[in-house]
Amino acid sequence: MIQFFFLSLLGIHGAVGVTHSLKYFYTASSGIPDFPAYVSVGLVDDLQISHCDSITNKNVPKQEWMERITAEDPQYWEKQTQICAGHQLNFKNNIQVAKERFNQTGGTHVVQYMYGCEWDDQNDEVGGYRQHGYDGADFLVWDTKTNTWVAAKQQGFMTSARWNNDKAQLAFYKNYLTQECPEWLKKYVSYGRTFLMKTVLPSVSLLQKTLSSPITCHATGFYPNRAEMIWRKNGVELHEGVGKGEILTNNDGTFQMSVDLDIRSVPAEDWGMYDCVFQLSGVNEDVVTKLDKAVVKTNEGPSAFPIPAVVGGVFGGLVGIMVILGLAAVVYKKCLKKGNNGFKPANNSDTSSSSSDGSDTKKVPAEEQKMISSTA
């Protein structure tokens, strides 16, 4: 299981190590209008570093510091574009075979593969994960402890049995995820250290759709994503009547999050007892916002404000990686939840060395090239 880095409210300001991550997402779809049939993205610390799709047919860097790799390999991005082209053919075949496995014909279908690794820069511990998904559900999951594939669906039993009999392939995957992938991750972190290790505090707003709706404390523009946000009453953290949202990525690489407070049972004269507290790892100062009607932006009353436009504008700005992962969120909701494992890509050769982008798209047996289709 992935050991995600979570912060406790009491220890968030401490001198702690940072868990870095390298993730790759591959998504192929059919029957979805105005969306690429194939998309692949790479992320370092949840920041998009690469992108390729079937419309542009080109793998490109998404961070300036990722262009530094061309100093070592001038043909780097050209090679990645060629790999991307090969993946498109494999994934197109995967969808067709998966449909046959599930006795399906037309309609909208999605094949996904996610994999990656993590590295704790304090104790140097590493971990890896990989997983295949189909139409919003787990299909095949790699068990990190036993180094075996586990079929989450009956239609995947033949595939897991075949892959588990290939000891060389299993050994390669384990070595890649625990050795090669972390080394690539360390290299990428060194490229982008100035950006990845920075800290930026957010702007915080209090929002309310209607006068009877919960008060939303919304923070945006912060970095990194190791943050905590709570509501307090008289300095004591509240749990009842509080709803926390997930940390989301903005299009500029920063993050946003929100936490709701149900105020239906809070008398107006008691509002001054409440405040919203944002804490960011590595920063000693908290961002404290008092619950004050004068600063709440709402759709009703004298302080009327177009909240849907504000929230819509924020979320509308989640382009790039969030557009890609937006589809993933719809068809494969588990892939980014706590403690979940991930997918991984098809590749082009069963004899070549590991990919220069840190992805294991080479040196993988032919079985993996066809992924689901290898057992058709």
TrEMBL record:
Its GO CC terms are: external side of plasma membrane; extracellular space
Residue spans of biased composition, Low complexity class? 349-358
Q: Which Pfam families match?
A: C1-set, MHC_I
What are the start and end residues of every segment in region (Disordered)?
343-376
Instruction: Enumerate the transmembrane spans.
Output: 307-332
* Bias (Basic and acidic residues) ranges: 359-370
Q: Which SUPFAM superfamilies match?
A: Immunoglobulin, MHC antigen-recognition domain
Q: Which terms are listed as keywords in the entry?
A: Glycoprotein, Membrane, Signal, Transmembrane, Transmembrane helix
Where on the tree of life does the source sit, at the highest rank? Eukaryota
UniProt domain Ig-like: residue ranges: 202-289
Signal peptide residues are 1-17
Q: Which family does it belong to?
A: Belongs to the MHC class I family.
Q: What is this protein called?
A: Ig-like domain-containing protein
Species lineage, top-down?
Answer: Eukaryota, Metazoa, Chordata, Craniata, Vertebrata
Q: Give the encoding gene's name.
A: LOC116317719
